[in-house]
Automatic annotation (TrEMBL):
One matching Pfam family: IclR_C
HTH iclR-type domain span: 8-70
Lineage, top ranks: Bacteria, Pseudomonadati, Pseudomonadota, Alphaproteobacteria, Acetobacterales
Residue stretches making up the IclR-ED domain: 64-252
Name assigned to this protein: IclR family transcriptional regulator
Entries under InterPro entries matching the protein: GAF-like_dom_sf, HTH_MetabolicPath_Reg, Tscrpt_reg_IclR_C, Tscrpt_reg_IclR_N, WH-like_DNA-bd_sf, WH_DNA-bd_sf
């Protein structure tokens, strides 16, 4: 095999090992990794040793298991910052056009983390702190993300029963599914005072340049939201498509 092709193969195998360790907080043994990536244990051992030297994986305990290492957290934080920086002009333009607050969030398994926000110009605004976490089942951006999953994936991720936040909160999987199906058809989801009383929202989900799920939402005091849902949704969808193109092809 030519040296260049061999190097590409090694990188691909290392990436497969890292993916096998994703969502494995207790780590995996070399044999467990080998079974997942369908490689010989000796090959996995060499790859893991190289990854350990770069702190991309670390020992998960005395049992010989390994898990993802701290170097990946630093890389992920850097990518997250870059993604938010790329998205910022898009959400700023959307906020200016609507006069409303616009939030940008990343998905972390069963919740959202807000990483950027542009506050609108209205006196009465819906404002959340950057870094705050939100559930998926009762937020517009969360439901938009759930709509990108299969029904089985949703149930596995968030279960079938949910905590009540307001009188409008959907608290069962069976009641949530119709909302998710609407979001799949429309490409957009709504929160009508399901997370916070007095606040309604529209949300969309998309994938960043690495394929990680991110979401945009426009939270609005319900008194201003009623009657404007369609206009807000149309502008949010246009922003989603423009940002998705930016993530996909890197164009300005």
């Amino acid at each position: 095999m030519p040296p260049e092709k061999n190097q590409i193969q090694v990188i691909g195998r290392a990436a497969a090992v890292l993916r096998a360790l994703e969502n494995q907080p207790q780590g995996l043994s070399l044999g467990g990794i080998a079974a997942k990536v369908e490689l010989a244990r000796s090959t996995v051992q060499r790859i893991v040793a190289a990854l350990e030297s770069e702190k991309l994986v670390v020992a998960a305990g005395p049992s010989g298991r390994v898990r993802l290492g701290p170097a990946l957290l630093r890389l992920a934080a850097s990518v997250e910052t870059d993604v938010a920086a790329i998205a910022h002009p898009f959400i700023a333009e959307l906020s200016a056009s609507l006069g409303e607050t616009v939030d940008f969030a990343v998905v972390r398994r069963d919740h959202l983390v807000f990483v950027d926000q542009v506050i609108g110009m209205q006196r009465l605004q819906a404002v959340s702190a950057v870094g705050e976490t939100f559930p998926l089942y009762c937020t517009a951006n969360g439901k938009a993300y759930l709509a990108t999953l299969t029904d089985e994936e949703i149930e596995s991720l968030i279960g079938t029963g949910y905590g009540r936040r307001t009188p409008n909160t959907i608290t069962t999987f069976d009641a949530l599914l119709p909302e998710v199906k609407k979001a799949r058809r429309a490409g957009i989801a709504f929160d009508r005072e399901e997370h916070v009383l007095g606040i309604s929202a529209v949300g969309v989900a998309l994938r960043d340049m690495l394929g990680n799920p991110v979401a945009i939402s426009v939270p609005v005091p319900t008194q201003r939201f009623t009657g404007r849902e369609k206009a807000i949704a149309e502008r949010l969808l246009a922003t989603k498509h423009a940002l998705q193109q930016r993530f996909t092809d890197g164009s300005d």
